[in-house]
Amino acid sequence: SEIATCMANHLSPPLPLQSRFRNRGSFLHIVTIPSSQFHNPAIPSPTMDIPAIDLTQTFPRSPRDTSIGGYVVAARCVDKCRAVLNGTAGEYHSGCPLDEVWLDFAGIKYKAFHKFVSSGADDAAISDWVTKKSKQKKRSQVIAWNNKMRDYRISKMDMGLQEFLEDYIPENIPAGKIVRVWFDVYDIEENRI
């Protein structure tokens, strides 16, 4: 996401999300991805409708969502990848540092992930693919990593990221909202908590 990209590169933050989405529509939009963007000719109908989020109108799923392969971050990664393919990513990025944290842990290359998502696969198929391709075969490993990510405190980040968030949070998170862990930044800014 744009927050992670800015944090990784120590850049100035983008406009707060609240100021970018004036008229958010429903969470899920059905769009047709042009067949020229499909990489898997084995999919029966390359012009089928697949769920894709218009990230110029709404937000990707929470980084806490575990609906793809049981991993946190994965569903958000899928939403951003689909939006990039559809040209509706807005200021979100696919393959950003947050996505890479998950992909590195799972042992999945971004290029392979992007290719599979671009095939038109739905969430269930992507979840199955992630489970098969992941180097993490024990559920306990995934659970432990998920909990580590859910509990990842800003005070444990490298100093450059801490410095970035020290300014970013008061500028972009509403007064009175308390950020206890990294994922809170996303969920508060995207109006989930």
Shape: globular
Mean pLDDT comes to 81
Structural class per helix/strand content?
Answer: mainly alpha
Rg, Å, rounded = 17 Å
Strand order of the largest sheet: 1-2
Order of SSEs: HHEEHHHHHHH
Strand fraction: under 5%
**Helix content estimate:** 40-55%
Total helix count?
9
- By DSSP, the count of extended strands is 2
* Low-pLDDT regions: 8-48
Termini, distance in Å? 18 Å
How many strands, what sense, and barrel or not for the largest sheet? 2 strands, antiparallel
Description:
This protein has 193 residues and is mainly alpha-helical. Helix content is 46%, strand content 4%. The protein contains nine helices and two strands, in the order ααββααααααα. It has helices at residues 2-9, 17-20, 74-86, 97-106, 110-117, 123-133, 139-150, 159-172, 182-189; strands spanning 29-32, 49-52. Strands 1-2 form a two-stranded antiparallel sheet. The radius of gyration is 17 Å and the shape is globular. Mean pLDDT is 81; it is low at 8-48.
Can you summarize this structure?
With 193 residues, this protein is mostly helical. It has helices at 2-9, 17-20, 74-86, 97-106, 110-117, 123-133, 139-150, 159-172, 182-189; strands at 29-32, 49-52. Helix content is 46%, strand content 4%.
